[in-house]
Every structure is written in C-alpha cells, then in structure tokens.
C-alpha cells in the first residue's frame, strides 16, 4: 500500500526574482498549489543549496528548478526536508552520487516523480541505510507530495515513476531488488510506508537507470543483467506491468556488456510507416558522454551515429535526457552535474546524427550543488513525441460517423489519397489498443471490432505528420 497524503507536504516556491513566499502553514500550501508550471518549461532536479559556500558532505536538500528552454530560471521549488504529515521527509544524496535524481514523468504528463531518502542532511551512506526510500511527486500546479515511501531495502533507489492511475514504480540500482510496483490507495494520517515484502517485484536482478512509458509500454535503460542472459541496454515491457513480468530487448541496441552503460534516453514517433516510437537517443554513462542515435525500421533498430558531448567545467557526464520535436526536428535537453544542455539534431530519420550543442546554464558551483535529472514540466503537452501535421491538414481530415458503432470512415484530402496510412487507436490511458494499415484511397474504413464502448484517440500517421482525432465508440 502506497499512501499519497491528502495534506500537501511542506514546500516553498522561490521565484527567480528572489522573493521567498509560501512555507509552513496550510495557507502557504494552498498558495503554492496555485503556482502552476509554465507550458513548455523544463523541470530540473538540483541537489544542494545554491547559497552554500563550501562543498557539503553526505545527504543534501533537493529542489526542482524550473527553466525555460533558453536557460532562464523561472523559479525553484524546495522539496521538503522536514516532516511531511509523518516522518517522510525528502532529501537527495551526495552531490555526485549516481544513485538518484533521475526524473520520471507520468504518461499523461500530469505528474513527475523523483526518488530520494528519508534521512537527515549529512548522512554519509544513504544508499546503505535502511531508511525509507521516498518518492517526491510533483503536480502541474507545483504541489509536492512526499508521503509515498518504501521500507525494507538497503539498496539504492535510482529512479521512479507514477502511472496515470497513481500506481508507483520504484527502480533500484542494485540487481538484487530491480523494479518494484505498489498501487496507490487512499491516504491515511499519519501515512504508513509500504514494506518491500508486500510490494510486487516486477523484474528482479536488473539494475535500472531511467524509465519512460511510450505507446502504453514501459521502456527502461539498464546498466547490467544480473543473473539474466545478456540483454540490450534499452528494453521494454509489453504494456505497463503491475505483476511479475519479463522484458524484451530492443533488437539492434548494444548489449549491457558493451561499455559504457546507458543512462538517460528519449524516444520519438516520426515515421508514419512504422507504428509506435521509432527514433531513439540514449546517453552513455561515461565521463566523455556520448549521445547515440538509432532508428527502427519495423524489424530492428539501426545505428545512425553518435555525438560526443563537449565537457563543460571538466564534467560532460550526462545524468538525464528529455526531448521533443520542434518543426519535425528532434531537440534534446540534458543535464550533467554542472550544466544544462540543448542538443538539436538537423539530420533526417535515417541519416547520421548531425547534432549541435548549446550550453544553456553553466553551474559554476558544481562542487557545491549539482543538477541530477530533468523532464519537461508536468502539464506540458508539448512533450508528446509525435511529429504533428499542420492545423489546416487536420481540419481537412474527418471521421464519420462519430460516435460510431462497428466502423468509422476516414475522409481525406486529395494530397493524401494516394498514400497508404498507418492508424493507431489509443484508449483513455494513452495505451495503443489497435493498429491498422489502410490502403490508398479517398475514403478509408477503420473497423472498430473488439473495442469497448468509450472515448478513444485516433492517430493518423501521414507523410505530412501525425493527425490526432477524438473518436467515441457507442
């Protein structure tokens, strides 16, 4: 049982202007809940206080810094370091420990999560402690919840994720624990941490680094195989498992035995002829970090070159990646301990990476505090990884009848009559429940057999981009 405390954790919001407001009282909680993230900004995890003057030892306070995509600091949100309804405080580990700080974003983009420890500042061995492993859940309104916790493990908690329904994934860096799932239930006061023994181990003996849910499937990067046979650095589950499950290698991706290890990654859907995500960028966890590019041809993932990150302030180690398509071109954002980067790839889907690097933020106090993870801010719809067609083209495509019973017809403009089309149908959770290949023609028929009554999203993958339509099945 994981408890999401209905009494919001103590959090304070520090605008970029330097004004400090909101702390302590219920009124402050309600006020902070009204400070929503801006659309299209980046949420960056920072460990350590900006005002520190000496290099700290042991565990540190953690923050969410909101940046524009040009590197302007909008504000900082303090993740609580004191009691949050019970004793579930949130703290990061040491400045440059690789065991935590990676961000998980829910599939509906409404909440992000960050893993940490319920420990006082200055603890020199957070990964070896038996303290509760805490998840800070941050909503689009800037509310921070820290009453989700797991006890009973002395292994490092590396990353986490919250599902649309509120279920929680805890991913450990130690192979003896792997990936654990615990459902969300009604909050209690005080909240009670979930014992590891009562949670569900989805996949043991694998060390996790980063998780994403694309097309209703859970993907992850991993650094080692444990007792499993050799596998790829990037793998996926079929669906979003809540019980024990096996993961499948992405064919063509290097094995974990090939040094260095994978860390952050991001995926896109750019090829209308291949259903689902088909473009991958992942970072190698090395001092001279490399961003690797792969495209999927429907059968295997093919290498499309790589880009070596130019070190900044002696530290080019990429801790996390996110990205989006801007005018059809992939633009990535990454953090090292010392810097916030932008990487724009001018190449096409199947050509060698042609990446330009821009350093957006120079962390001159890299030894005092450190950036650890990032995502587009919760509530940002721009993070959806589809190459979107023009609004004019979207208006020229119609589904009828709508609502529909057994089938729906697609009325298309003349520009698309001669091309075949891939169609995906997604349910309310964003999971792909049906895919179809439709032959050329002015009117196409999409059968709805096997779909329950409800509201669906229809994605039409065309040469001009992806068109999204709402469909109601009676």
Secondary-structure topology with pairs:
Blueprint: E1 2-3, E2 13-15, H1 26-33, E3 42-47, E4 62-67, E5 73-78, E6 103-105, E7 111-117, E8 133-139, E9 144-151, E10 157-162, E11 168-172, E12 179-182, E13 184-185, E14 194-195, E15 200-203, E16 207-214, E17 217-224, E18 234-236, E19 248-249, E20 262-268, E21 279-284, E22 290-296, E23 301-308, E24 318-326, E25 329-336, E26 339-345, E27 355-362, E28 370-376, H2 391-396, E29 398-400, E30 407-411, E31 421-426, E32 432-438, E33 443-447, E34 454-462, E35 465-473
Parallel strand pairs: 1-13, 9-14
Antiparallel strand pairs: 2-5, 3-4, 3-28, 4-5, 6-7, 7-8, 8-9, 10-11, 11-12, 12-15, 16-17, 17-18, 18-19, 20-21, 21-22, 22-23, 24-25, 25-26, 26-27, 29-30, 30-33, 31-32, 31-34, 34-35
Structure description:
- By secondary structure, the protein is an all-beta fold.
- The protein has 2 domains: about 1-385, Neuraminidase (6 Propeller); about 390-474, Immunoglobulin-like (Sandwich), CATH 2.60.40.
- The chain is about 5% helix and about 45% strand.
- The chain contains 2 helices and 35 strands.
- The chain has helices spanning about 25-35, 390-395, and strands at about 1-5, 15, 40-45, 60-65, 75-80, 105, 110-115, 135-140, 145-150, 155-160, 170, 180, 185, 195, 200-205, 205-215, 215-225, 235, 250, 260-270, 280-285, 290-295, 300-310, 320-325, 330-335, 340-345, 355-360, 370-375, 400, 405-410, 420-425, 430-440, 445, 455-460, 465-474.
- The chain has a 5-stranded antiparallel beta sheet, with no helix packed on it. It has a 5-stranded mixed beta sheet with strand order 6-7-8-9-14, with no helix packed on it. It has a 4-stranded antiparallel beta sheet with strand order 10-11-12-15, with no helix packed on it.
- A hairpin with a 4-residue loop joins strand 22 (about 290-295) and strand 23.
- The radius of gyration is 22 Å and the shape is globular.
